[in-house]
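=== RUN LOG ===
request id: a7f3
mode: sequence -> structure
chains: 1
length: 152
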Amino acid sequence: MAKTGKERFTFRSAGALFILSAVFELLSLTDGVPLFGVIRGGPVAVVYHLIYTALFVAMGIGLWDGKRWGDKAVMAATVFYTVDHVLRLLSPATLADYMFQDLGSYADLFLPAGTQMFRQLAELMTLLFLACWWAFAWYTYAQRDYFRANGK
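=== RESULT ===
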């Protein structure tokens, strides 16, 4: 199957955004991460961010260039992301604390609604992000001939 301009634009745009995500991971290298029921910092957080940086760079390059392994990189990252976020869902209090941490001074805007409602919102957002990742992984799989056409 020949590459269409639409496929090329979609995958190159996604590739550029994944590279940008890698840059943001590097900028937040020491930020705490929710892992196994607590927010962890230090070397654990650094390794966590470096793993995501590597995944984002691999996907970015694979998608941008249409590498033969590009669709496999997306699937591997999707599985890793899913496991990571399912673990977050298993500890809703930690997930809510992490999201409050990310909101910084804006967290006070959500407190009147109550912490239970915020936890439910955090869980819903996590499920929506997972659904989006899997939708993109499915699209990548459906367009796998795009990656085979390059022969790289």
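=== NOTES ===
Residues 36 and 85 are 11 Å apart (CA to CA).
The chain has one domain: 5-144.
=== END ===
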